[in-house]
Design brief:
By secondary structure, the protein is mainly alpha-helical. It has a domain of about 180 residues. About 65% of the residues lie in helices and about 0% in strands. The radius of gyration is 25 Å and the shape is elongated.
């Protein structure tokens, strides 16, 4: 059961942690002492692997060890650059996943606050939109039945994809146009709905052999867009729909609508 409050602080906090982790990693590896420690650890691991091939305790691998050090030194810069490239790709996937989780979290709160939204789900969109007698009998009161339906729909949304989730939020939850937003559109930032490109790149990273390049600037823009969109959804929900959100000091600055309304 939901407590009816959008946990903006939790999700923005996780988003900030992802961004901070990348910034810290990149900054740390610009320092020579850190690079030396990473290089040494890498060399030691390769040497340990070689140790497994010793024929006996008297075997000397000094020459091989020198070759390892030289080999690691040659590929280390390229591997590091490639590692950061892969890291940015995986962080994009993580940020995308966090965004989807947040949107489903918001949908859940709206379902409990406005149960009539469940009537908007057509049977052709969800083959399990009806309940069996068993489902109803197993749940004695109305609140248990509602909770069962909500959880069932949330599970469906979690696999629906960003496009269907946002389409539902725009059309049924009426989270789209708002005077609170500079662009007057919850999903638009700097003239475009950036989530579409983010969604496509995430799909290509996960499913295609040829991975898209994710630059540091692009990742920063993604984090900014998603943080901004999460925040705007919370602002609009509190001011226009009557659904409060949690965020120290910030939530207090936005007047909540007294009578909840879609």
């Amino acid at each position: 059961m939901s407590n009816g409050i959008i946990k903006l602080d939790t999700y923005v906090g996780e988003l900030s942690a992802i961004s901070l982790f990348y910034e810290y990693s990149e900054t740390a590896l610009k320092h020579q002492d850190v690079l030396k420690k990473v290089f040494l650890a890498r060399t030691m691991k390769m040497a340990e692997t070689l140790e497994a091939f010793k024929k006996n305790e008297e075997t000397q691998l000094g020459e091989a060890a020198q070759i390892i050090v030289k080999g690691v030194a040659n590929v280390f810069p390229k591997e590091l650059a490639k590692g950061f490239s892969i890291l940015r790709q995986q962080l994009l996937v993580a940020v995308h996943s966090l965004f989807e989780q947040y949107l489903c979290h918001v949908i859940k709160i709206y379902f409990y606050k406005f149960p009539q939204l469940l009537k908007c789900i057509k049977s052709n969109d969800n083959k399990d939109a009806s309940l069996s007698y068993k489902d109803i009998v197993d749940r004695r009161d109305g609140s248990e039945v509602l909770e069962f339906i909500v959880e069932k729909e949330l599970k469906r949304f979690s696999f629906a994809g960003l496009d269907k989730i946002i389409r539902f939020m725009k059309k049924q939850m009426r989270i789209e146009v708002s005077s609170l937003v500079v662009d007057r559109n919850v999903w638009v930032w700097k003239g475009k709905e950036s989530w579409k490109d983010i969604d496509k790149r995430r799909h290509d990273i996960v499913h295609k052999e040829a991975k898209p390049n994710i630059s540091k600037k692009y990742l920063e823009d993604v984090v900014s867009y998603i943080q901004r969109t999460m925040s705007v959804i919370a602002y609009v929900s509190q001011a226009e729909k009557g659904i409060p959100f949690e965020f120290p000091i910030l939530a207090e600055q936005i007047k909540i609508r007294e009578t909840p309304q879609l």
